[in-house]
Every structure is written in structure tokens, then in C-alpha cells.
Automatic annotation (TrEMBL):
<dbReference type="InterPro" id="IPR000515">
    <property type="entry name" value="MetI-like"/>
</dbReference>
<comment type="similarity">
    <text>Belongs to the ABC transporter superfamily.</text>
</comment>
<keyword id="KW-0812">Transmembrane</keyword>
<keyword id="KW-0547">Nucleotide-binding</keyword>
<dbReference type="InterPro" id="IPR017871">
    <property type="entry name" value="ABC_transporter-like_CS"/>
</dbReference>
<dbReference type="Pfam" id="PF00528">
    <property type="entry name" value="BPD_transp_1"/>
</dbReference>
<dbReference type="InterPro" id="IPR003593">
    <property type="entry name" value="AAA+_ATPase"/>
</dbReference>
<dbReference type="GO" id="GO:0016887">
    <property type="term" value="F:ATP hydrolysis activity"/>
</dbReference>
<dbReference type="Pfam" id="PF08352">
    <property type="entry name" value="oligo_HPY"/>
</dbReference>
<feature type="domain" description="ABC transporter">
    <location>
        <begin position="305"/>
        <end position="551"/>
    </location>
</feature>
<dbReference type="InterPro" id="IPR003439">
    <property type="entry name" value="ABC_transporter-like_ATP-bd"/>
</dbReference>
<dbReference type="InterPro" id="IPR035906">
    <property type="entry name" value="MetI-like_sf"/>
</dbReference>
<comment type="similarity">
    <text>Belongs to the binding-protein-dependent transport system permease family.</text>
</comment>
<feature type="transmembrane region" description="Helical">
    <location>
        <begin position="113"/>
        <end position="135"/>
    </location>
</feature>
<keyword id="KW-0067">ATP-binding</keyword>
<feature type="transmembrane region" description="Helical">
    <location>
        <begin position="199"/>
        <end position="222"/>
    </location>
</feature>
<feature type="transmembrane region" description="Helical">
    <location>
        <begin position="242"/>
        <end position="267"/>
    </location>
</feature>
């Protein structure tokens, strides 16, 4: 597990509460180690002549029923009290982590059973659980450690579950999955280090609670047994003579309160410190307050993205089969195709977001001239985090509903751009302004639900621009929006592309959108690119029967509204049941025996246009505008 960055600790220690709590905790821990070594003899020395004496110069806190010095006994008891409390906390955190990570390690079904059990256990009061386990494990220190440990476990399991689930959904964990890491390694290398901070903070606070619980069990006679003694036992012993000699109970009681406070205050101070963090935990590049500039310097003539033979395979199907294209700075390329043609999987594969059991392979997948599939995790994460922006279909699920928009945008620059919290927030406001969110400074403080759909999508684009993106992949970015807002968002993407010199890959099922905003169009069918042509060539020079059918299915102002809408006959192909020949053959008016027996290759012509059809030349005779083809006619 990684510990919080040095600067965070330094920050915590600089605050008065942090410094006080740290000093107090250090004293308690030091005493726990040294007191049993230094004063054990004085603490156990019996003096029958001075039984139950009150405080005096010889015995600052008086003596107990055997004339032993209470002050020394309280000091020596620090070792057992703190040691056992820490042990119980370790048991609780360990068991909690195991239970919390179970859904990730065991898979969905077994994970659900564990989660249900944890949910039930969390509902029981901790002290009740501790008493129950104390009875199960028997009276004594070991039993009490296990009892308190297991009583703490459900809360830690719940916390670990939430944290693990949150981190598991992050891009870099998905990326690590694609890199083929096993579940255990994924947990150890990518998940646990990222959930360590809140767990450590909670464990510190829980240690205070364990100390209290342990004293309680010992006080009740269920914990530490004679001749051993901890604060709880001393408290129990002292209580019997409370009216004669209150110091005998007050001294161990005060020790419990002070030590408990030390753990609690220190835990709270760290929590606050983490919240006030002014530098990212990792990685920490040298960049300072200056606006984030392009982190990867590339030869402008080189493509931003070069893809060859991209494949996405799942057990039993290969929904993306050999996709290849290049994208240059400032260029806009569109991918169109019906639902299920593999557009989204292509985008996810580019962003390294395909999850197991899916597998991505490619003859070439170079982003900013770096082979994405071969880069070390950390480098790939940084490269994608700074230069690759993704705008998803549903603006509602793109943001964390519990965090303010500005904070979510700022996080990107804190993580990857090396900006401080304040600087990152300033940049977030600037980016929100850039994507034309009105009153950006005020809006930055709002939660996602306070934004309209279009504004959320603009904020998402703004988030993509927190770094210096070289590529924006927008997957159906306007599907969830109404028509006027759709236009605004598309225009915004277009202006970002033009002004920031960013490459844009626009994915849509709507060929008219792609035609309008992109200079090149890739038409996908059954996981392959079947045609690649300049948008200006649509509709006249489209040579694939599928492209022409897509165009023909788009109604326009001249479409006769009395007639049923045109559709492409037949159904899209299931990637698990691909035919031997051309996948479009069953729906194609030009299909013949050759089409049914051999899949046509994607062939470029002298102008760089590519088409995969045995009858590409004949296809230009097919209708490509809506009123020319109607189902049922
Ligand atoms: N996790 C998965 N496991 C197996 N098959 C999948 C998985 N995800 C997607 N597919 C299949 O891959 C094919 C392509 O899916 P993809 O989401 O890329 O299509 P799309 O063209 O983006 O369609 P839409 O516009 O509906 O999102 C579909 O047939 C889909 O069923």
C-alpha cells in the first residue's frame, strides 16, 4: 500500500490539531513500547503495608489492593492496551479487506453472497458483535482480539467494497485488465494502492474505537486475564474502591480517553489533510502553474492515431474485425453504421477500455506515435490521461453524481498535469468557459444533476480539454439530447477541433451528422470497415451497397410523408454468426454466389478511397436518397 505523499503528512503536521494529535500519538506509542521495559518491576512490586492508599509523593496515583503503585501500573498497561487494540484493528482491517475484495476476486455470483452477508453484519451494533464473538472465542486476550477484530470487519468490508468497486471502474483498471493482469495482481497493484488512504485513515480512527472496546471487554472480565493487566482491568479493579480512592479508577480511565483521543484526532487530521491536498499523489510530473501544454511533442505531419488490423474478440465472437484508419491533427473522421456494427467497441478499444473477457489486438495501434498496446501501464495511463479525450453517449453517467463538476474537472489536471488544487480549479473554470458554460465559476460549484443534459455534455468536452488532448473520441455524443442542443454540442466539438487542432473521431448511427461535421467517413458493417470515403463524395460517389442503403434510409425535406419511411431490409448480422462470404450479402440487392462464398477485401483506389465490395462499380447505380427506395413498394 502506498502511504500518503510526504507533503500531505507535512501539511497535517503543520496544523495545530495535526501537530498536537501526532505528538500525543507518538507519546502513547513510545510509552507502549518503553513502559513495560522500564517500569514493570515497580508496577508489580507488592507492599502489603500500603494497601489502597490515596495519592502521595511516593505513589502519585496511590496504591491498589496489594499496595502496588497505580501510576506505574497504568504506564505499563499502555503496552498491552495499545498493542492488543492495534492487533484487533489489524484483524478487522485484514478481514474487512478480504471480504471487501471478494466480489472482485471471486466473481459476481460468489461476490454477491459475500456482499449480502456483509450488509447483514453491518446492521448489527459493533459492541453486540464483539460480545457475541467474545463468547464464541472464549474469555481471554486472544478471544478479545478476535472478537473486536471481527466486530470491526463488517464496517471495513463495506468501506473496502465501495472503494474497490469505485476504483475497479476507473479507466486505468480497465486498461490493466486488458494488459492481462490476474485478479490478485490487479487488486494488489492497481486497486489496493488507490484505496489505501481512506483505509489507513479509518483504521487509525478504528484503533481508537478498538482501544475503548478492549477496555470495555477487560472491564467486564471478558478480556485480559490476571496476572496480565490492561487499562480495562485496572479500571475494573479501581472501580470497587471508587468512593474510598477515586484515583485508582480515574488514572486508567484518563489513559483510555487520552489514547483514544490521540488515535481519533490523528485519523481526523489525516483525513482533513488528504482533503486539503495541494499536490497529486502520483505520478508527479514537474509541470507547474503554467497552463497545461501538449505533453507529448509530435511531428505534426505524423498521424495522431494510426490503426491497422484492430480486432476486438469475446469468447465465441469477434465483433471488431481488422479495422484500420489514420487520423491527423485537426481532422474529423466519422464512423457510421447500424446498431451492433462495432462502432462503440472500436472506440473503447482505442481508449483501452475493453474489459475481460474481451481482448484487443492490432497489427498497429499507435497513438501520438507510441504503440498503445505495448506501452507500460503507467506510461499508457499518462498518455491517455493527458492526450486522449472521450465523450460518452450518456452525459448523465459520465460524471460522479456526488462531486461538484468543477472538482471533477480539476481532478484530471491534479492527477496528470501536476497542478495544485487551486490552480486545477481555476483551469476547470477556464475550460467550462471555453465550452460556453454560462457563469462558469458558479456552475463549477454545482453538482451534475444541476446541469442540463447539453450542459453536462459540454462540461464533459471541457473535461477532455483539461489536458491538451490530441484526439477526442465522441461516441454518439448527442443521442441523449434534443435536436437544438444536439447541434450546439456538435458545433462545439467542431470548433474545439478547429481551434485546438485536435483530431476528432465522431461515432454516430446518423450518416447526415457525420457527413456534415467530418471530412472523411468510415462506414462499418458487422465489425469491419466496408467503405472509407470523403464526406463530400456522399451520396453521389458512395460505392458500397450498404453505404447507399444507409443514405437512402435518411428522410429529408423532400421525402413524401404519406409514404412509409425507408429502411434497410433484413437485420444486422450477429457477430457470433458471421457468414463465410460478405456479411451484407443477405441484405444486398447485388449479392451473387461470389459474395456468399468470399468476403471482399477492403481495396483502396487511386484517390485513397476504400471499399469492400465485389460489385463496387455496379453499386453506384443503386439509390442513395430516401425517396428512391421504400419498403413495401
Ligand atoms: N461485452 C461484450 N461481449 C460480447 N459481445 C459484445 C460485448 N459488447 C458488445 N458486444 C457485441 O459487439 C457488437 C458490436 O457492439 P457495439 O456496441 O460496438 O455496436 P455499435 O455499433 O456501437 O452499436 P450501438 O450504436 O447500438 O452502440 C454487438 O453485436 C454487441 O452485441
Amino acid at each position: 500500500m502506498t502511504t500518503p505523499a510526504k507533503s500531505t503528512w507535512a501539511g497535517v503536521l503543520r496544523t495545530p490539531v495535526g501537530a498536537g494529535a501526532a505528538g500525543l500519538l507518538a507519546a502513547v506509542l513510545l510509552l507502549a513500547v518503553l513502559a513495560p521495559l522500564l517500569w514493570s518491576d515497580q508496577a508489580s512490586a507488592v507492599d502489603t503495608g500500603r494497601i489502597l492508599e490515596g495519592p502521595s509523593g511516593d505513589h502519585w496515583m496511590g496504591t491498589d489492593g496489594l499496595g502496588r503503585d497505580i501510576f506505574f501500573r497504568v504506564l505499563v498497561a499502555t503496552g498491552l492496551s495499545v498493542g492488543l487494540a492495534l492487533l484487533a484493528t489489524a484483524v478487522g482491517v485484514g478481514a474487512g479487506l478480504l471480504l471487501g475484495a471478494a466480489p472482485m476476486l471471486l466473481g459476481r455470483r460468489a461476490g454477491r453472497v459475500v456482499t449480502a452477508a456483509v450488509n447483514i453484519a453491518v446492521a448489527f451494533p459493533g459492541l453486540l458483535l464483539a460480545l457475541f464473538f467474545a463468547v464464541v472465542f472464549g474469555v481471554g486476550a486472544t478471544g478479545a482480539v478476535l472478537a473486536i477484530g471481527f466486530a470491526l470487519a463488517p464496517a471495513f468490508a463495506r468501506l473496502a467494497q465501495t472503494l474497490v468497486a469505485k476504483v475497479s471502474g476507473l479507466d486505468y483498471v480497465a486498461a490493466a485488465r486488458i494488459a492481462g493482469l490476474g485478479r490478485l495482481r490487479l487488486l494488489a497493484r492497481h486497486v489496493l494502492p488507490n484505496v489505501a488512504e481512506p483505509l489507513v485513515v479509518n483504521a487509525t480512527i478504528a484503533a481508537g474505537a478498538a482501544l475503548l472496546a478492549f477496555s470495555g471487554l477487560s472491564f467486564l472480565g471478558l478480556g485480559v486475564q490476571a496476572p496480565l493487566y490492561d487499562w480495562g482491568r485496572l479500571l475494573g479493579d479501581g472501580l470497587s474502591s471508587l468512593y474510598v480512592h477515586p484515583a485508582a479508577a480515574l488514572a486508567p480511565g484518563t489513559a483510555v480517553v487520552v489514547a483514544g483521543l490521540a488515535f481519533n484526532l490523528f485519523g481526523e487530521a489525516i483525513a482533513k489533510g488528504i482533503g486539503m491536498r495541494t499536490t497529486p499523489l502520483s505520478p508527479r510530473p514537474r509541470a507547474r502553474a503554467a497552463p497545461v501544454r501538449r505533453p507529448v511533442v509530435t511531428d505534426e505531419a505524423k498521424p495522431v492515431l494510426a490503426v491497422e488490423g484492430l480486432r476486438v474478440a469475446f469468447p465465441g465472437s469477434t465483433p471488431v474485425r481488422g479495422v484500420g484508419f489514420t487520423l491527423r491533427r485537426g481532422a474529423a473522421v466519422g464512423i457510421v453504421g447500424e446498431s451492433g456494427s462495432g462502432k462503440t467497441l472500436t472506440a473503447l478499444a482505442l481508449a483501452q477500455l475493453i474489459e475481460q473477457p474481451g481482448e484487443v489486438s492490432a497489427d498497429r495501434l499507435d497513438f501520438l506515435d507510441r504503440p498503445l498496446l505495448d506501452l507500460p501501464d503507467r506510461e499508457r495511463k499518462h498518455l491517455l490521461g493527458t492526450s486522449f479525450a472521450m465523450v460518452f453517449q450518456d452525459p448523465m453517467t459520465s460524471f460522479n453524481p456526488t462531486q461538484r463538476i468543477g472538482r471533477q474537472l480539476a481532478e484530471v489536471s491534479e492527477q496528470h498535469g501536476g497542478l495544485s488544487r487551486g490552480q486545477a480549479l481555476e483551469r476547470a473554470i477556464d475550460r467550462l468557459q471555453a465550452v460556453r458554460v454560462p457563469a462558469a465559476a458558479r456552475r463549477a460549484k454545482q453538482f451534475p444533476h444541476e446541469f442540463s443534459g447539453g450542459m453536462r455534455q459540454r462540461a464533459m468536452i471541457g473535461m477532455g480539454m483539461m489536458g491538451a488532448p490530441a484526439l477526442i473520441v465522441a461516441d454518439e455524443p448527442t443521442t441523449a439530447l434534443d435536436v437544438t442542443v444536439q447541434r450546439q454540442v456538435l458545433r462545439l466539438l467542431d470548433s474545439v477541433r478547429a481551434h485546438e487542432d485536435v483530431a476528432l473521431l465522431l461515432i454516430s448511427h446518423d450518416i447526415t451528422v457525420v457527413r456534415r461535421f467530418c471530412e472523411r467517413v468510415l462506414v462499418m458493417y458487422a465489425g469491419r470497415i466496408v467503405e472509407d470515403l470523403p464526406a463530400a463524395d456522399l451520396p453521389a460517389r458512395a460505392r458500397h451497397p450498404y453505404t447507399r442503403a444507409l443514405l437512402a434510409a435518411v428522410p429529408d425535406m423532400n421525402t413524401d410523408r404519406e409514404q412509409p419511411l425507408a429502411v434497410i431490409p433484413g437485420r444486422p448480422i450477429d457477430p457470433a454468426e458471421l457468414p463465410v462470404g460478405c456479411a451484407f450479402a443477405t441484405r444486398c440487392p447485388l449479392a451473387d454466389e461470389q459474395c456468399r462464398s468470399a468476403d471482399p477485401p477492403l481495396v483502396p483506389d487511386e484517390e485513397g478511397r476504400r471499399v469492400a465490395c465485389w460489385h463496387a462499380d455496379a453499386a453506384t447505380g443503386l439509390p442513395a436518397v430516401a425517396e428512391e427506395v421504400r419498403v413495401g413498394e
